[in-house]
């Protein structure tokens, strides 16, 4: 299977979440420039003091920071295998030859994060990897680290204001805020064992502390520049910054804003790191890594097929499909509709087989490559050409396609690739959209036009009005969810495999449900650029006849595994 390993071509914008692989198999995701509020609010300070008994959080004064240049960051902390490939040794406490070998007896630790590394060790690794690759690898600045960790969020953790041991690896016998106690694993876990954030980064909370480039200064936030800050002054203490918390630490230490410190020579069983590469020059490519087997696919793995389509691996799992009554009532109130939301009765569903799903909805360019035509209303030759005059729409989602058109595209692409492409089932779609969340949207219970493309004149819940763009946007214009999928809310409605049945949830099987019983309509999900925000919710269901075309309707594909 091909690996995603090439940087963008010259003059081609880099898509947020784009993943490249280097010669040692390390995955790095593109982090776009942007702004963040660095630090934490007083309420978070006080909670941290209460849970942790000290006032370290006073160093977390909130201030706005701009990251003016995009960069690539390791999707995972550096692994033992990667470290040994570059350095010729594995210093880890939790390894077959380490001091803690009894704690990992019988386990293959090559995908465990390397630990027992000092700041000096980490920077030497970056130096040697840079020489090997011909590209400048380094540690992230403290500001880059927090920006990448937050991925657009303002909560204590990138998944909310509490944390559980289903979300990260930390000392689970302790709690933060109103969280619950969980598992205390007493060692690191393999990288990627927990859900990624919206930038596609794993283990930014817990597992191992991560060294940053900066010297540590408790009061640095009071004097730091607002653009691309990095503290290059050693100070009296001569400590370097650590971020992220670890398997050994309290949950409050794993917060996005938490700052820690150690001398550059100190090694510990919970100190690791991840690397950053400045944006690759236009046209330059990262060195290719060998293709991997389709078996035992790692969560978040991205592949590229022969037409340039990106697909990400979605692992099997369970989720609660549908929406709670409170969400249904809010939808009725905001959208002035009848009781359509009654079709969203909550029920647990198991997706028993992993699959690959298109990172984006199928684009106009991809559709034309496969079918030889572009039916889109918003295209240079479409009925809505005046709405996109002067724009290159090749990366716009294809629209004005029926369910029949979408399935014919899948049939032709399957023949071309020698793989089975199809539309997702309705259950697969919602599972992939939620990516472990239980809220109305994959980023919370409200939505803004900074997060998705919909009718910004309307609101859902306590959200605010925003921009009504009145047309689709290029795919990938908004942050991805925790599975690395873009535009699962809005932009274009997406066809699903199932026949539509208002009452299907009352009788559907709990494992891999798909409604194969004919009716008049097929399922549509996600809402569109013209939809009210409530229609863009993860749970929202609608349908249309299989031959219906509209400039708000597109699709994305799934590739089944053998």
Give the key terms.
562 residues; alpha+beta; paralog of FGE (formylglycine-generating enzyme); 2 domains; five-stranded antiparallel β-sheet; 8 helices; 22 strands; 15% helix; disordered N terminus
Mean pLDDT: 88
Low-confidence blocks of residues:
1-14, 281-295
Span between N and C termini? 13 Å
Rg, Cα atoms, Å? 24 Å
Shape assignment: globular
Q: What is the level 1 CATH name of the largest domain?
A: Alpha Beta
> Approximately how much beta-strand content do the residues carry?
15-25%
Helix content: 10-25%
Total domain modules: 2
Please report the total strand number as a whole number.
Answer: 22
- CATH architecture label of the largest domain: Alpha-Beta Complex
Question: Helix-strand pattern, N to C?
Answer: EEEHEEHHEHEEEEEEEEHEEHHEHEEEEE
Q: Which structural class fits the helix and strand makeup?
A: alpha+beta
Tally of DSSP helical segments:
8
CATH superfamily of the largest domain: paralog of FGE (formylglycine-generating enzyme)
What is the name of the CATH topology of the largest domain? paralog of FGE (formylglycine-generating enzyme)
Q: Biggest sheet: strands side by side, in what order?
A: 1-2-5-11-6
- Tell me about the largest β-sheet: 5 strands, antiparallel
Question: How would you describe what is shown here?
Answer:
This protein folds into 2 domains: 19-278, Alpha-Beta Complex (paralog of FGE (formylglycine-generating enzyme)); 302-560, paralog of FGE (formylglycine-generating enzyme). Helices cover 15% and strands 15% of the residues. The chain is built from 8 helices and 22 strands. The strands form 6 sheets. It has a 5-stranded antiparallel sheet. The protein has helices at 42-52, 80-87, 119-133, 142-150, 325-335, 364-371, 403-417, 426-434, and strands at 19-21, 27-31, 34-38, 63-67, 71-74, 137-138, 209-215, 240-243, 260-262, 271-272, 276-278, 302-304, 310-314, 317-321, 347-351, 355-358, 421-422, 493-499, 522-525, 542-544, 553-554, 558-560. By secondary structure, the chain is α+β, with helices and mostly antiparallel strands.
């Amino acid at each position: 299977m091909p690996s995603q390993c090439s940087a963008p071509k010259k003059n081609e914008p880099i898509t947020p979440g784009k993943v490249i692989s280097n010669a040692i198999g390390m995955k790095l995701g593109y982090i776009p420039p942007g702004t963040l509020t660095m630090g934490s609010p007083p309420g978070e300070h006080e909670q941290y003091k209460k849970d942790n008994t000290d006032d370290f959080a006073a160093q977390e004064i909130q201030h706005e920071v701009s990251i003016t240049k995009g960069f690539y960051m390791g999707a995972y902390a550096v692994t033992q295998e990667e470290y040994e490939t570059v350095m010729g040794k594995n210093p880890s406490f939790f390894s077959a030859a380490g001091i803690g070998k009894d704690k990992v007896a019988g386990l293959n630790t090559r995908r465990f994060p390397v630990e027992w590394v000092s700041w000096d060790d980490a920077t030497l690794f970056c130096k040697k990897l840079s020489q090997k690759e011909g590209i400048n690898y380094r540690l992230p600045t403290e500001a880059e680290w927090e920006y990448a960790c937050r991925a657009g969020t303002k909560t204590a953790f990138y998944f909310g204001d509490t944390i559980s041991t289903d979300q990260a690896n930390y000392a689970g016998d302790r709690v933060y805020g109103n969280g619950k106690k969980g598992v205390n694993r007493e060692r690191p876990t393999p990288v990627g064992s927990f859900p990624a954030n919206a930038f596609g980064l794993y283990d930014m909370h817990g597992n191992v502390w991560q060294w940053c480039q900066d010297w540590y200064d408790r009061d640095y936030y009071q004097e730091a520049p607002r653009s691309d800050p990095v503290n290059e002054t050693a100070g009296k203490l001569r400590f370097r910054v650590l971020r992220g918390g670890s398997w050994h630490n309290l949950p409050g230490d794993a917060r996005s804003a938490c700052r820690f410190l150690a001398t550059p020579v100190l090694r510990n069983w919970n100190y690791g790191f991840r690397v950053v590469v400045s944006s690759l020059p236009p046209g330059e490519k990262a060195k290719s890594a060998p293709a991997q087997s389709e078996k035992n696919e790692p969560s978040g793995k991205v592949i590229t097929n022969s037409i340039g389509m990106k697909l990400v691996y979605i692992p099997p799992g369970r989720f609660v499909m549908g929406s709670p009554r409170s969400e249904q009532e809010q939808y009725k109130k905001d959208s002035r509709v009848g009781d359509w939301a009654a079709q969203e009765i909550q029920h647990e569903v198991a997706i028993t087989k992993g699959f690959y799903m298109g990172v984006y909805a199928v684009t106009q360019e991809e559709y034309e490559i496969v079918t030889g035509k572009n039916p889109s209303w918003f295209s240079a030759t479409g009925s809505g050409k005046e709405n996109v005059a002067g724009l290159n729409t090749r990366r716009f989602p294809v629209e004005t396609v029926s369910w029949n058109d979408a399935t014919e595209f899948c049939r032709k692409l399957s023949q071309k690739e020698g793989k089975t492409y199809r539309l997702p089932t309705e259950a697969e779609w919602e599972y992939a959209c939620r990516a472990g969340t239980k809220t109305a949207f994959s980023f919370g219970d409200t939505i803004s036009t900074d997060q998705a493309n919909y009718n910004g004149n309307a609101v859902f819940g306590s959200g605010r009005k925003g921009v009504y763009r009145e047309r689709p946007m290029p795919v990938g214009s908004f942050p991805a969810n925790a599975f690395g999928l873009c535009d699962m809310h809005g932009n274009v409605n997406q066809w699903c495999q199932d026949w539509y049945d208002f009452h299907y949830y009352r009788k559907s099987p709990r494992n891999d449900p798909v409604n194969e019983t004919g009716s008049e309509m097929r399922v549509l999900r996600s809402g569109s650029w013209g939809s009210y925000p409530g229609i863009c919710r993860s749970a929202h269901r609608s349908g249309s006849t299989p031959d219906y075309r509209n400039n708000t309707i597109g699709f994305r594909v799934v590739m089944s595994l053998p």
